Amino acid sequence: MTKTSRRNRFRLKLLRALRPWHRRLGLASALFILLLVFTGVAINHSDDFGLDQTPVTQSWLLDYYGIPAPAHVAQFSALDKRNLPALYITDNLLWQGKQVIFEGPQTLISASYAANMLVAMDTNQLYLFDSAGHLQETQNSSTGLPAGLLALAVVDGRVWLKTDSGVYQADEQLIDWQPTVPLKPLSWLMPNPQVNAEFIQHARSAHLNWQRVILDLHSGRLFGTLTVWLWDLFALALLLVSLSGFWIWYQKK
Fold it and tell me: What sign has the CA pseudo-torsion 194, 197, 202, 207?
């Protein structure tokens, strides 16, 4: 047997052995490519599909991402008969209805409508919003606000604060705070003890949207480090399919 014939037989055996693996790798790579195509299109058009504004509501997926339910939840209803959305507090977030309007530096403790504005506070600062929920002013000890805030009361549109050092009343513009003794006991704002469970799930979902999930799936980060390596193996399979396909085509030619 000549050297040329032995070489041809080797190429023929290699070609027969390579074709099944080329098909298997091609099928596996096709599924991977389909996943990348669909997720890639979704990412490129996430604004059109509203993925960045669509929260994830599936509890198992929120659990997988390690997103717990808020530790501190409080609901405050409007004191008057105006048709105003309820105010919610979840940890350091303030909600007007189901819309987040503010994220504070620490846990919020109270919120209420007052005249034509909205007031919220933590233990050190007071936050003033317009009726649409836009932050207008932040007050603290540097602006004359008493320290150690404990509770909030709104009586006839006037704002009162209970603090570690006593009770304070604000003027009509909420600029000057004066220590005072109320003529009658004040009704300090207390949260509604029965917060809607649906809202708690909604508040939890606000920390994760479908754009983030699809981006993690596209990059392979959704299932951790092992999936990143798996994605690398799929990329290697694509390389092998390309090289083997070229070699098969070349041998036939």
Answer: positive
Nearest to 199 by CA among 69, 61, 102, 83: 69
- pLDDT values of the chain reduced to their tens digit, one per residue, 253 residues: 565 566 656 566 655 655 665 566 666 666 777 777 788 888 888 888 888 888 888 888 888 888 888 888 888 876 655 678 889 999 999 999 888 999 999 999 999 988 788 999 999 999 999 888 899 999 999 888 998 999 999 888 789 999 998 999 988 888 888 998 887 888 888 887 677 777 888 888 888 898 998 888 887 777 776 666 777 777 776 666 666 666 666 666 5
Q: What is the pTM of this model?
A: 0.69
**Beta-carbon-side half-sphere exposure of residue 99 (alpha carbons within 13 Å):** 6
Burial of 96 (0-12, 13-18, 19+ CB in 10 A): buried
Task: Give which of 214, 222, 226, 245 is closest to 29, Cα–Cα.
Answer: 245
- Is 182 exposed, middle or buried, given 0-12, 13-18 or 19+ CB atoms closer than 10 A? exposed
Q: Which two tokens stand for residue 102?
A: 């503010």
Q: What are the distances in angstroms from CA 55 to CA 149, 202, 203?
A: 34, 8, 10
User: What's the alpha-carbon Rg for the chain, to the nearest Å?
Assistant: 31
Q: Which residues contact 238 (CB under 8 A, 6 or more apart)?
A: 29, 32, 33
**Residue 211, beta-bridge partner list:** none
